[in-house]
Amino acid sequence: MSDAIKITIDGKEIEAQLGQTILEAADEAGIYIPRLCSHPELKPIGSCRVCTVVCDGRPQAACVKPVMDGMVIENETPELLQHRRNIIDMMFVEGNHFCMFCEKSGNCELQALAYRFGITAPQYPFQFPEKEVDASHPDILLDHNRCIMCARCVRASQELDGKNVFQSIGRGFDRKIGVNGEKALGDTDMAVADRAADICPVGCIIKKRVGFEVPVGERLYDKAPIGSDIEGVRS
Amino acid sequence: MSELVPTIREICKKYGNDRARLMDMVREVQESIGHVPREAFGLIASEAKTHRVEVESVVSFYSFLSDKKKGEVVIRLCDDIIDRFQGADAIGDALIKELGIGFGETTADGTITLEKTACIGMSDQAPAMMANDTVVTNLAPEKIPGLVKQLRENPEPQALVTEMGDGNNADPLVQSMVCNNICEAGPVILSDYRKDGGLRKALTQTPEEVIEDIKTSQLRGRGGAGFLTGLKWELTRQAPGPDKFVLCNADEGEPGTFKDRVLLTERVDLVLEGMTVAAYAIGAETGIIYLRGEYSYLRAFLEDKMNQRRVAGLLGNNILGNEGFNFDVRIQMGAGAYVCGEETSLISSCEGTRGDPTDRTPFPVVKGYMVSPTAVNNVESYCCAARIMDKGPGWFSSIGTERSAGTKLLSVCGDCARPGIYEVPFGTKLREVLRLAGAEDVACVCVGGPSGQMVGPAQFELGISYEELSTGGSVMVFSNQRDILEVADAFMEFFVDESCGYCVPCRVGNVLLKNRLERVRKGEGSPADLDYLQRLGESVKFTSRCGLGQTSPNPVLSTLKNFRPVYNALVKDNGHGLNKSFNIMKAVEDASAIAGRRSEIFHA
Question: The domain B184-397: what is its CATH number?
């Protein structure tokens, strides 16, 4: 217990452990910091920036920033909520997201975040980029229209599956997730049982033949807003 | 493909089939066969003991690498705003006419590919281009037919160089028409100096004392961020780890900057001396110069200088007879990626991966290159460090201002009579810099490049310093004949092209900023669009992961602040709240095309 330290989030002092990130410490204390690319089983990479907080006066991604004793953190300020909303909007307009047709609707973390932030329509113009759909794999569909480049699949394949099915290719607005095969996902050693097949926060990686097993209306975020599980910890 | 297998195997073997040298392998494959064919990804991956997609990841990241076959000669016309204002568009038109192809295309005979590229560091002799590694400066449309004819007959770009530039540009290992254009030599770097005097003195002191001297001198990083160099060295020395590294950031990619080009041409020994002092202070045995791909014409010359230092006992084992002080340097070539000037991206690139930045906790001083303590410093910072050791920290800190010690090399370019390099003491007023360079009727100066600030005459009384007008060297001058928002637009285009795309705000936000700025420039904007630009710009700045995204909205934000009347003249509230960018006839045409019939109500 010698590693126990104190940090302050939005004026509330909480206990944290050295070695934790701000996000992990906040989760334990029942304080929800919105996030997308972060996943408890994966190394954090700080790519979506939704979890941006102000830490001792400077913006930091909570998922990668380790805690230090006495840190003072701002989380739910009007300014930060606006920045996060703007980032969520950006993810909607950079891809082609049609929630009403998407198998992931109700289980989608991007959609759930939008609801939590009260977003009914993005404030930025849709970019309508041309994206590929890769249906080459017998059991898995890859729909790049919905990819938000969180690289969860990249990390899950490496860290949890011991493979290297995915990697980022290209740069800038044309950056995308590439696959470790001559042409398409079907050329890789991806298996439907891989954790990488399960870990996509949006509807980019979809398993075939199990669509709509759980009816719309009974899905994860149909019942409670995203983050409720963490906030439920709060006593 | 099968005929290429031995070549590719040979290249990979040359770099020890080491995955960390993947950059060098793919660069050399490209040099040797003109591109990195997709069919070769698998072979390179298996030779380097990595995965095919990792090879694709690297090749697709750098703009000088390509998986598509290119011509024997690749012409890259410099497309930064300074070159455009000096007539690059007319050069482009002339090239298109003579070659009979557009940008991004290759002549039918496979001889010449035509491309555009970001600033190649020749803004003082614009318009300029690269033909493979050869730099061709001071282009004029009337020179293009002859130039193209010559390349068609002899696809050897070096033959285009008939007149050499000054100084070491004429060295047999450089043979370049590039000119130094040193206009003002200050006391620290460009005056005559005692060769290796700083290193010799440093070796009479303990490493701790050397660090103390650098700290006392108040030397701050010359790349622009201004971190205290002595403190950086101290943190690197103190960080645990058996191997430590000294990296020199020679990825001079900020448009309008070319002072490192001149230092690498005329002050290589001083750079290497400074790196050696750093290695001694930190306890490093290995150094890397990360040289931007655009400066590959200097590579052989630099390698030779390094060799000369090895022979003279200034690099290698037991340097200058100091038992146990071993240090050597290698060059890591870049391949066309501005973001690699960001220190963590630079490290990624040195490790042979794509140049994505990494998180700065831990900082490179603790875990940098090969997860070891690493000091990354600018070319100019190393020069300063060597001089501080020779002349003393007090001498150095007596020059400049209280918070900005020493001199600064400025690369002045654009609308002025004498573009070139100016070494001035920190605190020199911008107005004085403009006077020295012979700039008249100046409407706007971009200080620090696109990532810096665009300032107007009201700010010309401010001094060049970390506390007032901070710059890594770039000073771009724009006369009152120029459209300031055209400049801002070109800068946003640059950031859109150069964003690595890792984080959302930089990947998407810059595209949105550029699109909205275009709308305003076309006169289709409303006052609400200025709020949109401001708030979007602030979000990108606030939430982006690395220095690129944290500064990329500056062209928009600094012009909104300093040139508001220019925007106000373009946006008018039209009273009825209609969106001026919406064209009803165009929308109807699009819809008609989809529906396959004409509108009953709206038609021309």
Answer: 3.40.50.11540
